[in-house]
Design brief:
Layout lengths: L1 E8 L8 E4 L8 E6 L5 H13 L24 E8 L2 E8 L2 E4 L6 E4 L2 E8 L2 E6 L2 H12 L3 H7 L1 E2 L6 H4 L2 H12 L2 H42 L28 H65 L1 H17 L3 H31 L7 H11 L1 H62 L2 H58 L1 H6 L28 H39 L4 H78 L5 H44 L6 H7 L3 H29 L11 H63 L10 H24 L4 E6 L12 E6 L4 E3 L6 H22 L7 E5 L7 H14 L5 E5 L3 H6 L3 E6 L5 E5 L1
Helix pairs in contact: 5-20, 6-7, 6-19, 7-18, 7-19, 8-18, 9-16, 10-16, 11-15, 11-16, 12-14, 12-15, 15-16, 20-21
Length: 1003
């Protein structure tokens, strides 16, 4: 993998877009990232890691402050990383999540994180993914390195460089697990522990099952008293000496099963005896039941014979009443043929009587009117109806008279309203000229005020500018006073720092001889005079190192920079104050705000006048349209008035005609309706009487015909008169009841005679039969049989249950041996994998696998460490058992060739620790690269303290870095060591600007 280009904007200390072209350093092979402390050197590596993986290692577990604090609300925050891998050339564009001011309304809103992955093709950059999850999946496949692996093999980040060397066995295991993905071996260990626990539980459950079933079988044998080894003849009961052979609690399971089998044999013998006893008892019970059944059947036959005799005697006694019922049924059937004629004559007589009563009622009604007529009643009624035909038209008109009066009154009101509308329109037309004059005058005043809108707006804006300027004058004066005070304080600090630096330089110059003398070695030449003897070396009483001077220079430079920034700030404030005073034009804040309020009020009045002008123009237009409309409506209203007067005259004429016609038709009555009602009632009474007379004649004729038919039928029957026939009549229900009684008597008598005949042939005794002795004998035999059945069932159940328990316990006992063997194997494996039991090194399977990887890492690291330490140091993997049961197997010790002993890495000096950590990190990078599929690493970054190395050691480190760039690899080193700046010409310089943000410069 090779990095080509990096762009950062609004990220970390960088506000404006900064670009790093890594391809520009390809020819040099190694470049330095330099800059003052805090300028943002490590932020370049943070940007690379964020662009590829969306996270920064230094913020793990804390607040992710990725967006630059120097950004304005609308500034962009973005990182662009362009790189190439075996799959091609790609570009990742990623922005972090941050909070920004809302574009609408107040408050803040969260800007969501964004990411996009592009691929370079012949057609240019082509989008490949735009969702975070899709980009992550694509980069996993392209990079073939996780973030932890990337940080370990490509980007050796600050504060993580020596972590692997100095870590304990447990922490080293955690790091190696992330790099090599060995969690699966821990899963294997967990699965073996689960299998061991499952096998242990299964073995325990099977043993518990065997014990439970053996104990249940023993309880069953004890309950059935089957422990004896002899059985009494004929009884099947165990002898009293049998208890001595019961298994003891110390017996083995096999011995207990043998004892249960012997008890099972005794149970089989007892069951056979009980089954034989049950068969004998069943035969005795069956014979007793047969005798009892015979006696009971004879007893029932005797009772049936006596009942049949009594029933036959009772039926013979009922014979006279049955004969009477037969005669009654015969007469009823003869009289049934006369029922219809007798009923018809009775109905005809009843109808005649009703007709006579109706005639009398109608005659009384007619006579109450006192009308004398010689004509037929129907003729008289027809004549009267013809006369009343003309009165009905008059009655309708009489009923409509109130409506006609109301219409006449409505017509009068319509004439009045039409006249009023004509007068109202004339008055309105007379007022319109005066209204036009008033609105025109008001419109002219509004137009003059509205024409001043532009001038008043300019005056308002000028007043508003003076208000802002006056407020700025007040604010800037206060800020300028504070800035002058700060500038004075910073000037004092700068002078103090300059004085301190001068003193340190003088002390270092004074002690230079002592510093040179401290490095003299006997028999080696002096670096000043070249002498091999050093008889009087100077002492170094007041030592001041170059680092002390550099630190004082840094303090002096920082103070000077702050002084320059404060001076620039003060000058800027003075310029801003002068501009604000010119803009305020000598006015105070109160004066400017008063003028602004007056200008705003005048401008608002002008705007209101412009709106009022439109309203007044519209009003004048509406007045003109109203005048035209009134002129058009005048003719319409005059026509409406004429039509209303015409309708009034028509309504008055119609009312007069109606009153004349009804007066003639009314006659002697108050109303025409009363006269019609009187004649209608008389006509109805005449017609009712005529109908009643006709109905009476018809009913009398029908009665004579019905009586004649009845008398003819009676003469042909067996009855003397109508009364005799009516006495013989019976209803259908009574006839059916008589017939049923007669037939049932005959059937019952025949049935009882037949039953008694069969029973008399059996010669049953006359005395009652007693079955009590037979019932007692049958009950005794059945009880004996039931007892035998219970005993046999109990014995057979004991045999069956005991056989099942013995078979089940025997089978389970046979399987326990296999389960125990399997458990032993699983327990041994689980203990070995988990570092328990015989595993004296206490190494888990995962630790064992990682130990093999660590041995390769140590071997790769020693190839460089041997040269870097001039053959003194070599790393060794240690699997020694840790103290107090701590995790072991992943230890690293340092073998010192000078002493021939090993020692912990923590005993190395700072420079030695750096070289050893560098060698180990590079060895780890080689092994991780090989495990990741042998990917090629063309770019490497190292961010760690080269400042802890002396000159010779630094030369060794530089030679190692030179070796790393072989094969076209580019190595980036972050350091502020001056010696490295002199040795590495290709540099990226990160510099903080006076106003805060940092920039990146290339040289």
């Amino acid at each position: 993998m090779r990095l080509h280009r990096l762009e950062v904007e609004g990220f970390g200390p960088f506000r404006s877009r900064q670009t790093v072209d890594f391809d520009a350093f390809a020819d040099d092979g190694i470049f330095l990232i330099a800059g003052r402390t805090g300028a943002g050197k490590s932020s370049i590596l943070d940007a690379v890691c964020f662009g590829l993986y969306g996270g920064v290692p230094r913020y793990d577990g804390g607040e992710k402050r990725l967006r630059s604090d120097h950004c304005e609300p609308d500034d962009l925050s973005e990182v662009v990383v362009e790189f190439s891998a075996s799959a091609g050339r790609f570009r990742v564009t990623r922005s972090p999540e941050y909070v920004r001011p809302s574009k609408r309304g107040g408050g803040t809103t969260k800007q969501a994180a964004g990411v996009a992955l592009d691929e370079w093709t012949d057609a240019g950059w082509v989008g490949r993914a735009a969702r975070a999850v899709d980009v992550a999946n694509e980069l996993d496949e392209i990079l073939q390195l996780s973030r932890d692996q990337f940080l370990q093999v490509i980007l050796l980040a600050q504060n993580r460089f020596s972590e692997f060397l100095l870590a304990g066995s447990k922490d080293r295991q955690t790091l190696l697990r992330r790099l090599f993905g060995t969690q699966r071996f821990e899963d294997v260990q967990a699965r073996f522990d689960d299998r061991r626990r499952a096998a242990e539980q299964a073995l325990g459950a099977r043993l518990a099952t065997v014990a439970a079933r053996v104990e249940e079988a023993e309880r069953l044998v004890s309950t059935a008293d089957l422990w004896g080894d002899a059985v009494e003849a004929g009884t099947g009961e165990a002898t009293g000496a049998g208890e001595a052979v019961r298994p003891t609690v110390t017996s083995t399971t096999a011995e207990r099963l043998d004892g249960l089998r012997r008890a099972k044999a005794r149970a089989d013998y007892r069951a056979e005896r009980r089954v034989s006893d049950r068969a004998e008892a069943e035969k005795s019970s069956t014979a007793a039941d047969l005798v009892l059944s015979t006696k009971r059947e004879e007893q029932r036959a005797q009772a049936e014979r006596d009942r049949a005799r009594a029933a036959l005697d009772r039926l013979d006694a009922e014979e006279p009443s049955i004969a009477t019922a037969r005669a009654e049924l015969s007469d009823a059937r003869s009289a049934e043929a006369l029922r219809s004629t007798i009923a018809a004559a009775a109905r005809a007589r009843t109808a005649l009587e009703s007709a006579r009563a109706a005639e009398q009622t109608a005659r009384a009604t007619w006579e109450r009117f006192g009308v004398a007529t010689d004509d037929d009643l129907e003729t008289w009624a027809a004549t009267r109806l013809k006369e009343s035909g003309a009165w009905e038209r008059a009655a309708d008109l009489e009923a409509q008279e109130p409506t006609l009066i109301a219409e006449l009154q409505a017509a009068e009101v319509a004439v009045q309203e039409a006249s009023a509308r004509v007068e109202e329109a004339a008055a309105e037309r007379a007022e319109l000229p005066t209204e036009v004059v008033a609105v025109t005058a008001e419109r002219d005043d509004a137009r003059r005020n509205a024409d001043r809108k532009a001038d008043l707006a300019a005056a308002r804006d000028a007043a508003e500018s003076r208000v802002r300027a006056a407020r700025d004058v007040q604010r800037l004066r206060e800020a300028q006073e504070i800035a002058e005070q700060q500038l004075a304080a910073l000037t004092t600090r700068h002078a103090t720092a300059q004085s301190t630096l001068a003193q340190l330089r003088q002390r270092r110059f004074d002690g230079m001889a002592g510093e040179l003398a401290s490095g003299l070695v006997d028999a080696e030449p002096c670096p000043v005079c070249g002498a091999l003897e050093h008889p009087s070396p100077a002492t170094h009483a007041d030592p001041v190192s170059a680092d002390d001077v550099a630190a004082a220079e840094a303090v002096r430079d920082a103070a000077a920079e702050r002084e320059r920034e404060a001076a620039a700030t003060s000058a800027s404030l003075r310029i801003d104050l002068a501009a604000a005073e010119a803009g305020a034009d000598g006015r105070t804040v109160e004066q400017a705000e008063g003028e602004h309020a007056a200008a705003v009020d005048l401008h608002a009045q002008s705007l209101a006048a412009a709106d009022r002008l439109k309203t007044l123009d519209t009003q004048l237009h509406e007045i003109a349209e109203r005048a035209d409309q009134l002129e058009r409506e005048r003719a319409d209203r005059a026509a409406t008035l004429a039509a209303a007067r015409e309708q009034l005259a028509l309504r008055a004429q119609r009312l007069e005609q109606t009153r004349a016609l009804t007066a003639e038709a009314r006659g002697p009555f108050d109303t025409v309706a009363e006269r019609l009602a009187d004649i209608t009632a008389k006509v109805a009474a005449a017609r009712l009487l005529a109908a009643a007379l006709a109905e009476r004649e018809r009913r009398a004729q029908a009665l004579a015909e019905a009586e004649s038919e009845r008398d003819a039928a009676l003469a042909e029957s067996a009855f003397d008169d109508v009364a005799a026939a009516e006495r013989a009549l019976r209803s259908p229900a009574v006839q059916e009841a008589l017939e049923t009684r007669i037939s049932q008597h005959a059937v019952l008598r025949e049935k009882e005679r037949s039953t008694l005949f069969d029973l008399e042939l059996r010669t049953l005794p006359e005395e009652p039969i007693d079955i009590s002795p037979d019932e007692e004998a049958a009950a005794t035999a059945r009880a004996a049989w039931m007892h035998a059945v219970d005993e046999a069932s109990r014995a057979l159940g004991t045999v069956e249950r005991l056989e099942d328990l013995i078979a089940s316990a025997t089978a389970e006992h046979a399987r326990t041996a296999d389960d125990a063997a399997e458990f032993e194997v699983l327990q041994g494996l689980a203990d070995a994998i988990a570092g328990r039991g015989a595993n004296t090194r206490k190494m888990t399977l995962e630790t064992f696998v990682l130990a093999a990887e660590l041995e390769e890492i140590v071997e790769a690291a020693n190839r460089r460490l041997y040269d870097m330490s001039t053959g003194r140091y070599q790393l060794q993997h240690s699997d020694a058992l840790a103290a107090r049961g701590a995790a072991s197997g992943l230890g690293i010790v340092v073998s010192d060739a000078f002493t021939g002993q090993t020692r912990p890495p923590q005993s190395l000096s700072g420079g030695e620790t750096f070289l050893t950590s560098l060698a180990l990190a590079l060895g780890l990078a080689e092994v991780v690269t090989a495990r990741a599929g042998g990917i090629r690493l063309d770019t490497l970054f190292i961010d760690e303290g080269f400042g802890s190395l002396d000159g010779d050691t630094l030369d060794v480190a530089m030679r190692t870095l030179d070796e790393l760039r072989q094969g076209g690899r580019t190595v980036g080193v972050i350091s502020h060591v001056e010696a490295m700046q002199e040795q590495i010409p290709a540099q990226l310089t990160v510099r903080a600007t006076p106003n805060g943000p940092s920039i990146i410069e290339t040289r």
